[in-house]
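User: Could you go from structure to sequence for me? I need the amino acid at each position, not a summary. Structure tokens:
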């Protein structure tokens, strides 16, 4: 079963984090990613750009309309996402709880019940 893990960010929190601590935190995240890639349970891990770079795309009268995003007006935004392929929900929860930042911020876990076949 596949699960999506969402990690939220907050620009004020990122800006307040001491710059000299970032390399160690990135190394912890890289170790987490490698550990679960090696078990075959982590399909992909993707960090997103800051929210200021998000765009909303709509179609208006058949023409694309691009506006600034993200859609929700909030301080919190999706900072990264992970796609897991695990035995069951309990395993997805176990991996989410092992995320290095889970002590400070929750990790959102969503079942992925539908998947388009690869072409």
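Assistant: Here is the amino acid at each position, in order:
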């Amino acid at each position: 079963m596949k699960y999506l893990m969402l990690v939220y960010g907050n620009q004020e929190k990122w800006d307040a984090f001491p710059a000299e601590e970032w390399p160690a935190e990135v190394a912890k995240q890289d170790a987490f990613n490698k550990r679960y890639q090696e078990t075959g349970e982590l399909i992909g891990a993707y960090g997103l750009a800051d929210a200021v770079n998000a765009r909303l795309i709509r179609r208006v009268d058949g023409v694309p309309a691009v506006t600034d995003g993200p859609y929700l007006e909030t301080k919190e935004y999706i900072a990264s996402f992970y796609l897991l392929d695990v035995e069951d929900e309990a395993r997805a929860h176990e991996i989410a709880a092992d995320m290095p930042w889970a002590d400070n911020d929750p990790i959102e876990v969503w079942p992925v019940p539908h998947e388009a076949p690869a072409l």
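One structural detail worth keeping in mind: The CA atoms of residues 28 and 100 lie 6 Å apart.
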